[in-house]
Amino acid sequence: MKTKIAITGLPECNKTLLALALSITTGIPYIRGKTMYEWRKCFNISDPEKIKWKDMLLIASSAFFEHVKIETCFDQFISDETSFRELIWLKSNFAKQNQSKKKYERDRVVEDLEIASVLYAAQQYDFIVHAGLGLHDGYDQMYMKHNLPYKKYSAEIVEKTIMEIANDLCLPMRFSVEDSIYQAKVKLFL
How far are the Cα atoms of 6, 22, 44, 86 from residue 38, in angstroms, in the given order? Predict the structure, then answer.
């Protein structure tokens, strides 16, 4: 039975609802780290369009260590994201920035963080669920490059997706999916 599951996906794809409802359905603990908005708030970054490279690196590395700290406390979990979400964000934003003399050093730092994140993910996650049929290029590249165990699921119909995931991973169904989705919505929207 796969019991350390990370759920990835782009914003607004029902990822959090899916993760929380799957947790309620199976009885596997739900965990989450800070969102990108919460990280920017922690580091007093109000305008995401004017964020500096050092701030992006600070967020990506802090988020990685937060995932490690939280996830290693559990024997099983459903995590609302992965240890490398912010790294993907860093890489996609960093690629847009101007070339500079420091590019080589920055590339090395990002490469080292990627190696640490992926090694951790490969050892920690039994399975990665990617919510939504479309893949963000950064996720797709990360999964393929490092041969991480993932599968894409459409998260448009959350009930159907939970049933598919539970079936694919042989997860126990302790509560009805309908009740679990209702409870998850109550928790998320209160």
Answer: 19, 24, 10, 12
Per DSSP, the three-state class of 150 is strand
Which residue type, as a one-letter code, is found at position 96?
K
With CA atoms as reference, report the closest residue to 1 among 169, 161, 123, 163.
169
pTM of the predicted structure, to 2 decimals: 0.87
Rounded CA gap, 9 and 82, in Å? 10
Most confident of 7-21, 102-116, 121-135: 7-21
Instruction: In whole angstroms, give the CA distance from residue 41 to residue 168.
Output: 38
How does DSSP classify residue 50? G
Q: Would you list the DSSP string of 74-103?
A: -SSEEEES-TTHHHHHHHHHHHHSPP-TTH
| pLDDT given for residue 124 in this prediction | 93
**Residues present in the chain in total:** 190
- Under a CB-based contact definition with an 8 Å cutoff, are residues 22 and 179 in contact? no
Separation of alpha carbons 115 and 34, rounded Å: 22
User: What structural domains does the chain harbor?
Assistant: 4-189 (3.40.50.300)
* pLDDT of 56 above 80: yes
